[in-house]
Amino acid sequence: PNSIDAGRLAFGQTTMLATPLQMAMVAATVGNGGVVPRPYVVQKVVAPDGSVIRNTKPGNLGRAIKPQTAADLTTMMVAVVQGGTGTAAQIPGIQVAGKTGTAETGVDNVYTAWFVCFAPADNPQIAVAVVLEKQLNGFGGVVSAPIAKAVRQSLLHG
Fold first, then answer.
1. Angle subtended at Cα 50 by Cα 47 and Cα 51, rounded to the nearest 5 degrees
2. Are 124 and 36 in contact (CB under 8 A)?
3. Which of 1, 27, 55, 77 keeps 20 to 30 A from 40, CA to CA?
């Protein structure tokens, strides 16, 4: 009863838990050539007169994977969006690298649907993670990828 099923754990089932921020950091790490970016919530603080009081300086938390591994993962993630399970995340003119995820909940046909991505794939500016819990017949590529697309479009074109 306390044994761990390593096979299921390896692809995110059973006791494997992650937050959207952690998964966005995974995508950002791949897009950042294997270096983990230091997350922050506030980019800048602006005074009522429009002057900037404080800017957050991006940083990193060190290397998690080799640059070649990150490049290989990027190629695979681009393929997911171009012709795999994540085609709903495509943005014309912008190459997107993404990965869908669909976790079982223990209830038939009810899933936790994930999509993580970064864009543009060749010069990443943003990373996004979308998770929707308790989705009836909801797969990551169907319900989460379109939301990630809308977020990216807003950030990249807004």
1. 70
2. no
3. 77
